[in-house]
Amino acid sequence: MATFKIVLDKRTKLKDNKYNLSVRFVNGNDVMYLNIAKMNSKNYDQVFLKKSNDPDSITFRETCNGYLTKCERIFTELIPFSKEQLRELFYKEEKENELPRL
To answer: What are the residue boundaries of the structural domains of the chain, listed by start?
Structure first.
């Protein structure tokens, strides 16, 4: 069974000490990262590890959890499974539902 998790992808450091906030997809030996925002380590720790209770952090976490649900829904509908199709369907509606900036 496939798993989806919100992670701070530290494989590549971006400008201003930021990294890609991604949905990590793991299905057996298949691993894929779907980038959803840019964030620094301090903000990631505050929002996802310490679970800050300020309204912006709560809204941001809820939106990210919605992305996890979206990935799970897309995965169950893809028969046969294709990583390219998963990526395409995930980003298809993202232009309408962009994350707020932290």
So the answer is: 3-92
